[in-house]
Design brief:
Blueprint lengths: L7 E7 L4 H16 L6 H19 L3 E7 L3 E8 L24 H9 L2 E6 L4 E8 L29 E5 L5 E4 L1 H7 L3 H4 L20 H6 L2 E9 L5 E12 L5 E9 L26 H6 L7 H15 L4 E7 L5 E8 L3 H4 L3 E3 L14 E3 L19 E9 L2 E10 L7 H45 L4 H12 L6 E6 L8 E7 L5 H9 L13 E2 L2 H20 L7 H13 L3 E8 L2 E9 L8 H38 L11 E7 L10 E9 L2 E9 L4 H19 L4 H14 L7 E10 L5 E8 L5 E3 L5 E3 L18 E5 L4 E5 L1 H4 L2 E2 L2 E2 L1 H9 L7 H15 L8 E7 L7
Antiparallel strand pairs: 1-2, 2-3, 3-5, 4-5, 6-7, 6-10, 8-9, 9-10, 11-12, 11-16, 12-13, 14-15, 15-16, 17-18, 17-21, 19-20, 20-21, 22-33, 23-24, 24-25, 25-26, 26-29, 27-28, 27-30, 30-33, 31-32
GO biological process, one term: regulation of DNA-templated transcription
Keywords: Hydrolase
Organism: Streptomyces nitrosporeus
């Protein structure tokens, strides 16, 4: 230390454990305060914290701390026992790299804060030392200072007068001393009982957001405001407030006021300004050095560094930082140190505290003993902290967050620490808000992309079960650890647990059992997420029962698989659980339940994103429900248009293949039917209504039922079709023309079959003989539904044993691939290869030929009716 005379020394050794860092900070703080070096305590504590951390955490050795006092300052040496010979300096000069990196950060702080510093190496030790010079103390503050000549003392115009004003719990003046009468001109009788705020001309210290009404409720406060005198003039004053209570417990506030230019009488000492001689060396903002320099978009890193440095600055045992929501009604825990962060992160507390708490987070506050009012700071409940100081983070008058430092001992902090922490919070508030807005913008962009993708996925299915699965898969693990979807079938039904998903598939069954054992959440239509404590409570109770039984058996190692599953489920479900209503078309159709693991919370942005998702999912789920209901109705009606079955015709094989075009259609414009008419005779039909879909299906139903009814009345084929034609025309604008092949079948005793056929505008039936020849089995006649007067006739066809009659609709013959079409010739060619096949095999070969002809799905309905007279069996 050159020629400086050492007047005192103090030394201590700290074990290589994490707690030693806090102990070393306390040692240096107590030592320097005992020497009267309050001006350099903060810098010394911060530097010691970094260097001891390097020793006990990074080097893993004990740390020796030596404090040396001189008349001009203090020198602190920190030594570890990790041998190192290379000095960490680059050939081009001092280079510590990024301030974010852990290595070298202590030396960076030394370079920024210390008057002088250095590193010394030996084979067994490494010494890092720094020198802090005492700044010159300005005259007139309440702290020890040098003895000054009378001429240098502050000048007062007259005797310094200190007004003493006491207000009751409502802010009304209860006491007004003689100096107050002298300064302001109001007598005690004139002001007693009036609100002090009525006498205040401008209500707060310029440059701050704390009004006089707020200041009167704080435990301690210092600042400036103006009092309007009896003559109407405004007297600027500096005030020091102290809130006390009488023996009956009634609170009141004692205010000491002096003229503003005499504020040195009351003003608490503040950190001395940096001297000009060291201005260049200390151009770095001290609090910016405390927090390091995280990347501008690294909000979590910035917040974590802030709480760590705030704790170091006030030598606390814990620190926390909360960010305000957009509406400034709640604060969300975003960074802590010295507290169980996993339990506290993203927990929310109100900005305006309720009964029994310390007013509002919008104002600085010193909590001297939290055990006096249990629960006054919810964040610190059951943490062992007894005293805490909290200050707001504000940007342009708007609350953006709250910064707090806590200690395990009571009465640790005073108004002085609150002022120092507020100064630090004011310096960091804008950087925090800028990083928060950057993170929010990135989250919103990601949320928009997420919602667009979710909308596409939900719109891509109309299946209810698939929609439920998509809802859960989109939330886990992106938004939550687990998810459950409850559905409500109708307004009077109970919610039903329809789908459960956990990011760990092995826990799904346990989670499902747990949720099934408790009552579902109430289907409240109020938008937004609401906390549902039942799953966490049920999980804790189940875990407690398992633990109790295990301890009773005194054999925890023999715990069964079921018990282990219960404990795992309790851990997975023990965090925050929220419920979002699924509302579609002004009706609650279900609930989306999201959960976190034990002691974890949702952040506000995630809940807002989940709310947006729930609205989209609700509409998709309701659309799937409506589609399923309508599909069920449609399919039921369509099935009624199909014949109940193909009758067994003696000595004749009959097989039918039917394919309706369009999604979800079972019946379209093509239809078929085979039915008994009377003993020994059967009717068959195959037709094609113009178009496809429900309108064509309606005409299909009319034609099929009319054919059966008319045929059983004993009418012949031409008469049946003529009456059907009249019925179609009677439909008016809903009518559609119809091509129809209708015939009657009589099995003969000689093994053949007699057919009488009428082909009304339909593709001609084809007859396959045993020799492989194919020929048309009827002649074309006019189609139905176009002309009133029809003259139709029937033709007889005899099928010999081995012969096949093939009847198709134009969906078969008009099958296209580009400009090619299968056509009648192509169909005849395929049929010619079916000699010797059964009726079912013939129909199947025709269908495969049609499907292979073109790669694209069929755009028209298809019906294939094959009838074959089997050959006699040889015995």
């Amino acid at each position: 230390m050159g020629s400086a005379v050492i007047t005192a020394r103090a030394a201590a050794t700290f074990d290589p454990v994490g707690r030693s860092v806090a102990t070393a900070r306390a040692f240096v703080r107590d030592t320097l305060q005992g020497w009267g070096y309050d001006e350099v305590v903060d810098d010394a504590v911060v530097l010691t914290s970094e260097l001891v951390t390097n020793a006990v955490v990074h080097a893993g050795t004990a740390a020796d701390v030596l404090c040396l006092r001189t008349e001009d300052g203090v020198r602190v040496e920190v030594s570890d026992h990790y041998p190192e010979r290379e000095i960490p300096l680059q050939s081009s000069g001092l280079d510590f790299g990024s301030p974010d990196r852990e290595g070298g950060r202590g030396l960076l702080l030394c370079a920024a804060l210390a008057s002088r510093w250095g590193v010394e190496y030996t084979p067994e030790h490494k010494h890092v030392w720094f020198q802090l010079d005492l700044p010159e103390r300005p005259v007139g503050i309440r702290s020890a200072g040098p003895v000054l000549p009378t001429a240098l003392l502050p000048v007062a115009d007259e005797r310094v007068r200190v007004a003493v004003v006491q207000t009751d719990s409502a802010g009304a003046v209860a006491a007004w001393n003689d100096d107050a009468v002298f300064l302001f001109g109001h007598t005690a009788e004139q002001v007693t009982g009036k609100q002090l705020t009525d006498l205040v001309a401008w209500p707060h210290t310029p440059g701050t957001d704390t009004g006089i009404a707020d200041a009167l409720r704080l435990s301690r406060w210092e600042g400036s405001y103006g009092i309007r005198g009896a003559d109407g003039r405004v007297i600027p004053v500096y005030a020091s407030h102290l809130r006390v209570r009488d023996t009956q417990g009634e609170p009141s506030t004692v205010c000491l006021l002096v003229r503003d230019y005499e504020r040195a009488v009351l003003q608490s000492p503040v950190r001395a300004p940096v001297s000009d001689a060291s201005a260049d060396r200390r151009a770095v903002d001290p609090f910016e050095v405390f927090i390091g320099s995280p990347a501008p978009d690294d909000l979590d890193g910035l917040l974590q560094r802030t709480v760590e440095r705030a704790r170091d600055m006030l030598d606390g045992d814990a620190a926390f930082l909360l960010l305000a929501t957009d509406d400034e009604t709640e604060l969300e825990v975003r960074a802590t140190t010295g507290l169980p962060s996993a339990r506290q992160r993203f927990a929310r507390v109100p900005v305006e505290a309720g009964a029994g708490r310390y007013q509002s987070a919008r104002m600085p506050a010193v909590h001297e003993d939290l055990t006096v009012v249990p629960g006054s700071v919810p964040l610190l409940v059951d943490t062992g902290m007894r005293s805490v100081v909290t200050v707001p983070l504000k940007v342009e008058g708007r609350l953006t967050g709250s910064l707090g430092v806590a200690a395990e001992s009571a009465g640790r902090y005073t108004n002085e620490e609150a002022l120092r922490l507020q100064f630090a919070a004011d310096r960091i508030a804008l950087a925090v808000e800028s990083a928060r807005l950057g993170e929010l913008e990135r989250l919103r962009r990601g949320s928009l992309s997420f919602l667009v993708e979710a909308s596409d996925l939900l719109a891509g299915t109309l299946d209810r079960d698939q929609t439920l699965a998509l809802m859960a898969q989109m939330t886990v693990p992106t938004l939550a650890t687990w998810c459950a979807v409850y559905t409500i079938a109708d307004p009077y039904a109970e919610p039903f647990l329809s789908f459960v998903l956990h990011e760990d598939e092995e826990r799904i069954d346990g989670l499902k059992d747990l949720l099934s054992s408790i009552a579902p959440p109430d289907p409240v239509p109020t938008p937004g997420a609401r906390v549902w404590p039942a799953p966490a409570r049920a999980a804790q109770e189940a875990a407690l029962r398992v633990s109790t039984r295990t301890l009773a058996r005194d054999a925890p190692l023999s715990m069964g698989a079921a018990a282990r599953t219960t404990l795992a489920t309790a851990s997975a479900v023990g965090g925050e659980t929220v419920v979002l209503p699924l509302v579609a078309r002004n009706r609650v159709i279900g609930m989306l339940t999201l959960g976190k693991p034990a002691d974890d919370h949702f952040r506000q942005e995630i809940l807002e994103l989940a709310e947006d998702l729930s609205r989209r999912a609700a509409l998709a789920l309701d659309n799937a429900r409506l589609y399923s209901e309508r599909m069920a109705i449609s399919q039921s009606l369509q099935r009624s248009l199909l014949p109940p079955g193909t009758p067994d015709v003696p000595n004749v094989e009959i097989d039918v293949i039917y394919r309706a075009a369009g999604e979800g259609n079972e019946v379209g414009g093509d239809f078929y039917d085979v039915f008994p008419i009377s003993d020994g005779s059967y009717g068959f039909a195959i037709g094609d209504v113009c178009g496809t879909g429900p309108e064509a299906a309606a005409v299909t139903g009319l034609a099929r039922h009319a054919l059966r009814l008319l045929a059983r009345e004993g009418l012949g084929g031409p008469a049946v079709l003529e009456r059907l034609n009249a019925a179609i025309l009677d439909e008016g604008a809903r009518s559609r023309f119809l091509t129809l092949l209708y015939g009657e079948l009589w099995p003969q005793e000689d093994g053949s079959a007699l057919l009488k056929v009428v082909c009304a505008g339909h593709p001609l039936p084809l007859r396959l003989r045993q020799d492989g020849s194919v020929e048309a089995a009827a002649e074309p006649q006019p189609l139905l539904g176009v002309m009133d007067d029809l003259e139709l006739y029937e033709q007889e066809v005899v099928l010999e044993p081995g012969d096949v009659l093939l009847c198709v609709t134009d969906g078969v013959t008009e099958r296209r691939e580009g400009t090619r079409m299968l056509g009648d010739d192509g169909l005849a060619e395929v049929l010619s290869t079916c000699t010797g096949l059964t009726a079912g095999a013939v129909a199947g070969r025709i269908l495969r030929a049609v499907e292979r002809f073109a790669a694209e799905p069929a755009s028209d309905d298809m019906a294939i009716l094959a009838m074959r007279v089997p050959e006699p069996q040889d015995f």
